[in-house]
Every structure is written in structure tokens, then in C-alpha cells.
Amino acid sequence: MDTHEGLSCLLVEDHAADAHLIQYLLDEADGTALSFTHVSTLAEALGLLARESYDVILLDLSLPDSRGLGTLETIHHARADIAIVVLTGLDTTEVAIGAVQRGAQDYLIKGRGDGQTVKRAILYAVERQRANQRLLLAEAAFRNIDTGMMVTDAAGRAVRVNAAFTRVTGFTADDIVGTRPNILHAGVHEPRFYEDLWGQLRETGAWEGEIWGRSKDGRIYPEWLRINVVTDAAGGTAGYVAIFSDITFRRRAEQDLLRQATTDPLTGLANRQLFNRLLTSTIEQASRYQREAALLFIDLDGFKAINDTRGHAVGDAVLREIAVRLRRSVRISDEVARLGGDEFVVILPEVTGRDSTAAVAEKLVHEIRKPFAANIDGTHLTASIGIAMIPDDGVSQDRLVEAADAAMYDAKRSGKNTIRFFSGRAAAC
């Protein structure tokens, strides 16, 4: 307790002589200095307590406007955060017990003990009140915080969990307390993960990071977890406090942002940014495993006429339908992207030569040529497809895009509605 600057005391005493004597005795006693504010009625005390704060209230139970334990109850109700020491002439065990039950830290009888005894009782009362206040605030935070909390002993057995823990996990205190909370493990992490976690806890006293948990109903969810070692005054491990929050919403938000950043908003296909990453990855994999891959560059023939004559709404509907047809015409491992306008690309990460690649391209030409629904009539829509092979036509992203683009223009010059492979001068397949 920091008392080097003294303690402030509100003395509530209606007898002036008693008030002067109490102050004199406490001023003469050794130890921490006390500064006094003296009032003689309950009303005066309540008025001051509404505006000011004190370290301790020295209270007589018999006042002109209030008598008995009701005086204490009123004061305690107004300021439960301040230590109250009753100093009264009422010498009854029943009243003394009632006073302690109603919030008094101590009960002293006037005329019993010297100033040193009374001062010591006041100092102890202040210290107990402060300790109790810290515990009350900590308990309130533990109970009401939205973050899940679990306290364990040094052996890792659960001692307490809060309400937020139960809301997130579904497990109650009866389910968890006294057990090692292995039932919270999702089965996602390898044993080495937990070995490293406990190793860091022993070394640094804390661990923090993302971890997967399992709720009582079997749901697996991501959580952000922090574990701190609780040590005693001698530095020994007394237990652990785990604080965690379900970050499913945050993960979804992050995924939504990533999807928005990498997805074409009109068609739902990968956009140019994601396409660049996917093509780079395909080139790396093809080189590493010595296999062939292909890039198909698709441009719609006659789309501008549809857009100009039918309007952008119909044009957008056509593009969305083309995206559906492309996606359903290739393997799940193949990638489809829209670069902008009516330009699409397909990445085939694993092919077996030109014949298999040509078969996929011809299928796409056939799908695009099919009639559209009446509301997005596009009977004259076809596609020109240029193909670049990996690694034959290049092993860099820019080189492959240029090669496939050049082959696509050769397909257009050849009458459209066809495919062409790149061969240095965009020769026909």
C-alpha cells in the first residue's frame, strides 16, 4: 500500500469533543499521516461523498439524523469503494457482527485502545478494502468480458472459465473444471505444434497466436489465443490464464476482402491480379515436375455488336453466361479468369501434348457457339482462341501471354471461330 503521502479520512462524528480527541490521538500515533475532514451528520457526509473521495471513513453509528446499522448501510451504499471503520460507543457483539456483514472493514469501541491501535486498524482496513476492490473489479471483468477466459493450475487442469468461454465453446464449467481441456483441440494441428507452444510458454512465460478449436457441438473454428504463465512472489508457476476469441467473423471478412481483390465482380472468375499469380505458379510447377501446361487466350467474336445493339445489361448477361460455360467445360484443377472486356483466359496446369490441349480448346469454341437464352440472344457470338504451350513457347509470364495473344489474333485473321497455336509466327495448328 502506497501511504508515503498520507491518507485522507472522512470523520463522521456528531460530538465535537470526541472528534477532536480522535484526531489528536491519531496525529500523535506513529506511522502514516492522516488528513481529516470532519462532518457531524449523515446528510453532510453524503453530500461530501457525492463530490469527493477518501481513503477511509471513520464512522459513528449514532448521528442526529441517523442511528444504528442503518447509518452504515446508507454510507456503504453510497460509496462501497471506500474503507469504512466504525468507531462508536455501542459495545455489542451483535451490532459488531452486523456492521462487518454490512460492509465495515472494522468495528472499534470508543475509549478502547490508544491512538496507535486505532491508526493500525485504519491502515489495515484501507489495505483490505483496496485488495477487496481489486478482487471485485477483476471478478467483474472475468465475468462480463466478451473474451473467453480459462484459468488452469500449474498442471494444466482447468480451475475456472467465464461466461464468454461457454458462449464460444458450448462447454460449461461443469464440463471443463478439473480436467485438462484437450477436448477443445480441433485435431487440426500436429503434436509438434503443441510441443512448440508449451516450449515457448516455459521459455518466455507467454504464447500468442492463431489456433483451431473445437466446440461442444463439434464445430471447428479459428480463434486468437493468448496464454500467460501466472507466477507467485518467488517466481514459481502457479497456473496459466488463457484468453481467446472466436475469429471466424474476422477470417470471413479477410476472405471476403481477398475475394473482392482477386475476383472479377461481374463473372465471379479470377481477375487479372489472381490470374498473374496462378500463371506464375503453373510455370513454376511445370518446371519443377518436368511437365507440360498450356495457356488459352479467348476473345469473343461479335461481342461488340451485341453490346452496341442490345445494351450493356445484355452484354453483361452474355459475359456471365460465357463465364459459366467456360468453368463447366474444364477440369476443377484448371483455372479460368477474365482479364477485362470480352477477354478470357484458361490455364491448363497439366496437359499431354498439343492434341489434348486442342481438344479442350475446341470444346470451348463449341460451348461458346451454342445459342443463348432469348433474353440475351447472341446467336452470332463465337470465339477465337490462341494457345501457348509451357515450356515450349516460354517460361515467363509476359512471354506466354504475348504468345497466346499473338496466336489469338492469328485465329481472328483466319476467319474467327477457331483455335491457333503459337509457333513463333502464330502458324496454324
TrEMBL record:
CDD domains: GGDEF (cd01949), PAS (cd00130). GO terms for molecular function: catalytic activity. Transmembrane segments: none annotated. Keywords: Phosphoprotein. Residues 141-178 form the PAS domain. SMART domains: GGDEF, PAC, PAS, REC. The keyword Transport does not apply. InterPro entries: CheY-like_superfamily, DGC-Regulatory_Protein, GGDEF_dom, Nucleotide_cyclase, PAC, PAS, PAS-assoc_C, PAS-like_dom_sf. One of its GO terms (biological process) is phosphorelay signal transduction system. Residues 207-259 form the PAC domain. Residues 8-125 form the Response regulatory domain. Gene3D superfamilies: 3.30.70.270, 3.40.50.2300, PAS domain (3.30.450.20). Pfam families: GGDEF, PAS_9, Response_reg. The keyword Magnesium does not apply. Residues 291-424 form the GGDEF domain. This is Diguanylate cyclase. The lineage of its organism: Bacteria, Pseudomonadati, Pseudomonadota, Alphaproteobacteria, Rhodospirillales.
